[in-house]
Amino acid sequence: MSDSSTSSSSYDSAVGAPQPSVVGSHSTSQGIFAAVSRHWHDVFWLLIFMAHLVVVGFALAVLGLNGFKQKDRLNIDQYTMGFLENKDGLTEDYWPLYAVAGGVGALLGWTWLLLLGSRANQMMKLSVHLLTTYLAVISVLCFWIKQPFWGTAFAAGAALQFMYVVSVIERLPFTMLVLQRAVNMVWNLPEVTRLTCIFMLVMLFWLSLWSFGAAGVVALSFRDSGRWWLLLVLSVSLFWTGAVLCNVVHVIVSGMVFLVLIHGGREATSMPSKPLIKSLRYAVTTSFGSICYGSLFTAAIRTLRWEIRGLRSKIGNNECLLCCVDFLFHLVEFLVRWFNKYAYVQIAVHGKSFNHSAKDAWELFQSTGVEALVAYDCSGAVLLMGTILGGLIAGTCAAVWTKIKHPDQVLMVGCTAMLMGMILVGLAMVVVESAVTSIYICFAEDPLLINRWDATFFNQMSEKLHQRLQHRSARAQEVLSHTIDDQI
């Protein structure tokens, strides 16, 4: 195998470290260490994202200033005569309410990072079991304040959450095993948690501007429908911005985890100096367009995939419904091929475009059979449950204060505050998810990397993969025999 000094453009050579001679069981295992060029990819989406930040930032400033200390300071009402209700409201009436959500979300995120090494496993188990209860409580509160639509929505969410947990209950022991090993990996990289705290501060800065504009929207004299549509547009923008920051951290952590696995440990003498800085540089320059592009779709598609898998396992023998769900399942699987979270690991290591990275990652999993293990693991869902729970807590705190100060705006402030909390907690959760995705990519590319890092964990993963492949083979034989019987 060639030394990394032969090319300054590969990931490992960029950090100035020699590449170890490791031979994996998969034919493309050498691809981890291959020299690749670091070109700018998906530049169009980078430009779109930056333009979106400028436009949305300007709009937020205008909307916030319009009601700051003086109603309709910028005379926006004269352009919306058909939507006015002549309500009195100022930006500063609602801005502190969003500050509560931002403070609670940041506190929960920093608490998660602080307890990452000692109590992370217990916190993840708690989030799985507590989320259903919390959704049910929020549903009751919505009915109590005479909001039947939102009460029904949260009740449906509680039911879906309960059904999902029941459908995957046998997978949770293996999921917690993988999460525990990922937590141990990240805990030994303290610079990663420090960088995540910095990104949370950056997100708080943007949230201060976003909440200023959102408070201005709530204070506008539009009808409720007009304000909801404006807040929806701003929420989509915030979701994209938060996802981009989370995935920047994802790429950085993935690069760091790969280096640790390749070099055999954080304290190895072959580890390059200041790898975090160079991972950060790639993430915010040549790979930033790919991150912006993937952040638009991956979270929504992944969530839809989990829900369809849970529904598919509960249908039973209803052939018509099973046919419809199978169609949706195959459609989502096709989308997953082009938009999956494992693409960010390929972006970190190889510097590819997003679609190329996603396609290569999925083909790698399918060709090695590791896709069966990835499909069985629920670590992403468990971390998402913790993120949602954190957002609900932040939104509830803001909604309770809004109920005291402005009872007619509880849901409007509470829903948007929940999104703020989810983004801040999600930034803390993503460090573990990045480690999990990197472990699976390494296991598919070269299992010896995992074996050298932790032989016991490697044996457990290999045994579970063997079980899943046997299970799939048995199901395939059963389907084939049924098909032959039907033809006969």
UniProtKB/TrEMBL annotation:
<feature type="transmembrane region" description="Helical">
    <location>
        <begin position="410"/>
        <end position="432"/>
    </location>
</feature>
<feature type="transmembrane region" description="Helical">
    <location>
        <begin position="152"/>
        <end position="174"/>
    </location>
</feature>
<feature type="transmembrane region" description="Helical">
    <location>
        <begin position="381"/>
        <end position="401"/>
    </location>
</feature>
<feature type="compositionally biased region" description="Low complexity">
    <location>
        <begin position="1"/>
        <end position="13"/>
    </location>
</feature>
<feature type="transmembrane region" description="Helical">
    <location>
        <begin position="43"/>
        <end position="65"/>
    </location>
</feature>
<keyword id="KW-1133">Transmembrane helix</keyword>
<dbReference type="Pfam" id="PF04515">
    <property type="entry name" value="Choline_transpo"/>
</dbReference>
<dbReference type="GO" id="GO:0022857">
    <property type="term" value="F:transmembrane transporter activity"/>
</dbReference>
<feature type="transmembrane region" description="Helical">
    <location>
        <begin position="128"/>
        <end position="146"/>
    </location>
</feature>
<comment type="function">
    <text>Choline transporter.</text>
</comment>
<feature type="transmembrane region" description="Helical">
    <location>
        <begin position="95"/>
        <end position="116"/>
    </location>
</feature>
<feature type="transmembrane region" description="Helical">
    <location>
        <begin position="195"/>
        <end position="222"/>
    </location>
</feature>
<dbReference type="GO" id="GO:0005886">
    <property type="term" value="C:plasma membrane"/>
</dbReference>
<comment type="similarity">
    <text>Belongs to the CTL (choline transporter-like) family.</text>
</comment>
<feature type="transmembrane region" description="Helical">
    <location>
        <begin position="282"/>
        <end position="301"/>
    </location>
</feature>
<feature type="transmembrane region" description="Helical">
    <location>
        <begin position="228"/>
        <end position="261"/>
    </location>
</feature>
<keyword id="KW-0472">Membrane</keyword>
<keyword id="KW-0812">Transmembrane</keyword>
<protein>
    <recommendedName>
        <fullName>Choline transporter-like protein</fullName>
    </recommendedName>
</protein>
<dbReference type="InterPro" id="IPR007603">
    <property type="entry name" value="Choline_transptr-like"/>
</dbReference>
<feature type="region of interest" description="Disordered">
    <location>
        <begin position="1"/>
        <end position="23"/>
    </location>
</feature>
